[in-house]
Structure formats: C-alpha cells, structure tokens
Amino acid sequence: MRNLILICLLSLQCWGYALDPIKGAVMNGSIVETIEQEPFLTSFIQGGQLYLNIPDSLLDKPMLFTCHDNMRRSAMQVVWSKLHDKILLKQQAVASTAGIIIPFKEGIDLKDNILAIFPMERELALPGGHCINITDLILNQELEWPQGLGVSFGNPVPRLSVLMGTKDLDGEVIIKARRGMIRRNSKASVPLYFGFCALGSPMKARRFDYRMGFYPDGKMGVRFGQQNGLANITRWRLEKKFKDQNISVPVKPISFLISPEVPKKWRSYIKAGIEEWVPAFESAGFKDALVVKELDSLDEWTAHSIHSNVVHWNQKKYMRGWEYEDYGGTLGHIIDLRSGEILRGDIFMGASVRTVMEAYFVRAAPLDNRAQRFPFPDELIGELFQAITAHEAGHVFGIMDANFGEYRYPWDKMGDSTWLRTMGYTPSVMNYTRPSNIPQPSDSVPPSLLLRHVGPTDRYNIKWAYTEFPEGTTPQQEKAALERMVRWQDSVPWYRFNRNQMEVIGPTASNEVVETNDPVRSTGLALKNIERVIDLLPDVTNDQNDNGRLNRLYEKTLELWYNHMVHVSTLIGGYDIHYKAMSQPGNMYTSIPWKDQMEALDFLLTHAFAPPDWLVEPDFHTKNRYSTFPDLVLHYQQKLIIDLLRARRIKRMEHLEEVSGNKGLVKAYLRYLQDGLFKEIWESFGHVDRRKQEIQRAYIDTIIAMLGQERSIMEIENQFFVHSDYSKGLLLIQLMDLKTEIEKGMRRNRNVDTLGHWRLCLEKINTALLVTPTNSIQDD
After folding, report:
1. Side-chain-side CA neighbours of residue 287 (13 Å)
2. Element spanning 553, H or E
3. Helix (H) or strand (E) holding 552
C-alpha cells in the first residue's frame, strides 16, 4: 500500500502538481488544503438487518437525523449516548444562537427525549466504536418528526417494510427503505430515505426582523406581527473567499442540480429562473454565488444527500387524478436550527403544461399573440416555467410568500415599457401578482414584460440578509448598518414588506392580481382585457371535441374577475401598511382616505353587483348550457356581500371613527351600501332581475346571521369574528329602514312583476325582527 501511495504521488508530480508536505497539494498553482476527516458513522446490511457503527468520538455530539419522501423534507437534531451497555438515540432541544432554546415539540420543556434504546452488537463493532442494529428504528418505529417540517408516518405496517440499501458518504449516512404505513385508509409501502448528517460549527447568524420578509429558523414560538421573536432568519452560509474585495466569489456557492426527470426542453428555462437571482447576490457582495447544473443522470444517493439541492419535476402530474395540479411549485428545506443555516433546499415544479397555459391565457392572451392559440409555443411555456422557478428559488434563499411593496407602483406606468424593463410591474417575484393584465394592446408592451421577474425589492432583501461585514465590525456596528438598510423602506416604499395574517387589512395585502397605487384605475383597465379574453374563448376552443377547455377558461376568467373585485374592496376600511420600529416617525397603519374608500364602493356597486352581459351571459352559453346552475358570478357576488359586511372590516371602520374624530362613518358606509344594492326601491320599485334578487336576499340573510352571532366575553380571540354591539345596532337600524322602504314601495306599486320578491324580503326581515327585541326602537 505504501508503494502504491508513492507511485500516486510521483504520478502527480509528473503531471505538473507540486507537493508540499505541510500545506497540502498545489494543483495548477492553487493550494488545496488536505483536511483530516473526523470519523463518522458507518453502516452495513447483514442478514436483512441494518447495522450502524458509532465511533466513540461521536458520542454526545449533535448531528441531524433526516427523512425524505418524494416531496417532503424533515429533520431533527439528535445525539448518540452510551448508558451502561446500551446506546441511546436522543432528540435534542436546540440551543439557538439567537439566545433561546427551541423545543423539539411545542409545549414540552425537556432538553432531550429518548427516541430509541439499542443493545450493543459487540462482535460487529469496529475498534474505538460501538455497533447497533437500527432496523426497527428505520422500518417499524413510530417517529414524531418536528412540527411544521412535514413528515408523519402514521401507523406502521411492518410486513410491508423492507430495507433497500445504505450508503456511507463524507460526514453522512443515507438509508433507503420501503416503509409500510397507512395512507388514506390504505396500506402502502412508501419509499423513504433516512440520513444521519454531521453538523459543523454554527454559522454566524442574522437575527429575525419582522419588517423583513425572511422565514424564522423555526416555527415554534415565533409569532408574526409587530414583534420580533428570539430567532434567526433562514439563509445560506455564504462567505467571501477574498475578504478584502467588495464583490468576491464565495468560498462555497449555492449549487443546484436540475434532475434528469425535468424534460430537456424546459431545463434551460428553469436554470434561467434560478440565475435571475445572480444580480441580487452581487448586490450583497457575492459574484457567481449560484451554480446550476443540468443533468442527464443522477444517482439516488447524490440526489438524497444533505449536500445536494435538486430541482424536481413532480411525477404526480403523470398520474390520473393529479395530472392537472394547479399549484405552481413548492420547496423543501432542511435547516440547522442552531443558526438558521439552510443546509439543503429543493424546488418541486408542480404545475402541468396545461395549467400554466390556461393561467396565462386568461390574463395575457389579449396582449400576447402567442397565447391566442393552444398549445402555446415551447418558448412561451418555458418562460412561464422560468417565472415559477424564480419564485420558488426565492423561497430556497429564505424569503417568504408575502406582500412586498404592493400598492406602491404607479398605475399609469403599467403600460410603460421603459419603466417595466427597469422596475417590472411588481417589485418582487415573491408577490402573488401573476402575469400582468393591466396594459392595453395599444401600449405595445413586449410579452416578456408581462411576467414576474426578480425585481428591486428582491435585490434589497438579499442585500440585507446576505451582506458580509468586514472583519473587525463590532456587533453594534453591524446591527446599526442592518437597521439603516431596513429604514430604506422609509424612502423607497416598494421595499416594504407585510405578511397577511387572518385578514386582508388593505390593498397592500391582497393577492392574485397586479397591485398598483390606484386599484380602481388599474382594475378598470384589467376589466377591458377580461372582456377581450371572453371574446377570444370561442376561437381558442373551436377545435375541441368537448366543452372542457371552454368551461375551465371561463371559470378561471370569472375567478380573475372576482380577485380584481376583492382587490378594489380592500380599499374599504383599508390601511396602507408600513412596519416600523418604535423610534421611526409616522404610523404603521395609515387609513385609506375616505374619498377613495367611497370611490371603491361606487366601483363595486357598478361593476361587481351590476356586471355586464358579456361576463354573466356570454354568447357561447346558449350553445353549451341548459340551466342557470351553477351561477358562478352570483356565487362570487354573494361572497363579496359577506366580505363587505364582515366584522373585521367594520371594526377597522370603527377604529377610523375614533382616531379621526369623524363619527358616523360606519353608519354612512352601511347606508350607502344598502342604498346601492336596493336602488330599485327608489326607481319606481322597478324590475329586479333574477340575479339581483338573489343578491338582495343574500344581503338580508347576511345581516340577520350577523345579528344572531353570539360571543363570549371570556374568549377575546373569538370576538374577531363577531360584530361589536355598536355595529350590530347600526346593522339592525339598516334592516328596519329597509323594512320601512319595502313596505312603502309595495303600497305604491301593487302590480309590479317582482312583488313576490319584495314580499319574500319583507318576510325575512319580519321573521328576524320578531325574534330580536327591537319593537320599541324607533328610527330617529
């Protein structure tokens, strides 16, 4: 063996590699340091049993225990400990560098928990270590993986479980198994990959700040809202190779492998989607921070290593029942909870070709000739996959789904190609804005500018999270520099982040449409394109042998129409949001001007509750429909009615009354809404069409239901969903006023064809008033 080593060394010298016995090998002029690897776990299968050798040096040292299935990733920090003649596997609570202990399960304050106890297999042990049989742990034992990380095995089925193989890598052991379990009330043998991975020293962390849109290191104990939990953000360990350079290559770039299962014709677009982030990392001081490789083959051990980040092509889309999944993609993370370091990040491309084509058609077909015929050209489909990939890559780098800088872009720039080339139509690819449908055909906006791309806010976020400060920077100086970056949001409003929690507080927090600083104007433009989409539907479905595509596209167009109406409705009782430190001047929540709120209500009364025939009864309905059921437009209108009267919206208006000193806003709003919905009462008690009758009765039903809601004074959280007594009183007055007006109208107009409708409305109101102690209340 010694002679073989000498021959190898001489061969290296012959090929031009100089050797230094102290520093290591000099390869083509660059030093490659030789690092003595610390021994790690080793594994083997013998007699159908899985054995693990644990060196003494690894006892009581933290490592990761991981599990992968086809999409989900989960991990827990564990240690191996020796107790008498047994080896214990213990799950640990994690000591975070943020200064807090992250429990292994919420509500349990133990520092560790025994997962399994193993007798030693002394005859199989290697020198300086201990051997154990872990077959039952891998195949049969119920393991409760950390909350929020995604894998739960349920009831094991041992007779369907089998070991498939094991592989020892540097600092890592990977085990492949088919594990029997119960899924959807059926017994299944599911492929799983388990791993044990070495943990080095924790990286330098960056503290979580609620004003920035990064995931915290763990979900347990970290609350979103106007407070910072003791947590680190999740990010990659990026360190400059050349510390003295403003922009340096990293010591280790973030590398992605595009799986061979991704069709070749889409790989270059997926690669481009990830590489859209390269300039963002340059803003943080890193050149060539990302490496993306397209692969024709990938062995399963590399694919499931902790050191591999893989772009997957979701195979479910080839199975009946899942072939047309609507979601675009998702991700899988493995995190070192000590520091928030992202150890592995995978992208799962979920959307089918049909899904991306149809979603683009209903938004952009009037603006992109390529989308006016199915199937789309491959170039366009590839660009759609690129946009999805860029969004999912942002998650892999640690950025949340949220609202970034929305309600801040000028509405009149959405058709300006010069603006769009520089700024995009949305400041962040992480927004749920979808393709733009605001430009008009006369604007001649290039189709490439109708898709989301990595934008200015994404570059800002990466700069804040990944900038490496020079050596010698004190913690106080670093904290001050990061705070200055956060406060750039004061002067650059599209840098602002907010996370929609439980309610859509304002136009900064809605999704699915392009959001501008004037939702009414931009929605008016979008409606023109929606009408053009309806006009295109017969031509793009004419070659079909059934009406499946026509119905899908029409339904998706209606959903888009509804999302635009919701966006306008966010102005009513809405706020502009700017998260701030207490020392920053100004309010976190600035109410939308009352004039703009009422303009939005006028828009809804005109466009949502009196929609045009081209939307509700397009010409093609006479050919392919036999009933008014289902009436999706009516369904969306009823949802809007409920939403416009929700307790959360009314309570925001109550607050506006108090802080502005302008009493009567809630009453004025409710009166204006009711008058608009029942305008026929004041128009000679005129004809009310079928859909409007349903809307009016839905309004009455909604108020009656809200008046009947009970609340517990001991459960303050539940009061979020229930109107205050103040608002209930105003709602009751509206109902009583409506009763009076209907009775007057019926006395004046005894022969109108909708008399039965008004009688039904009156009976509903009378029934409600009989069970409500209001007979003594008089209208002032």
Report:
1. 8
2. helix 548-569
3. helix 548-569
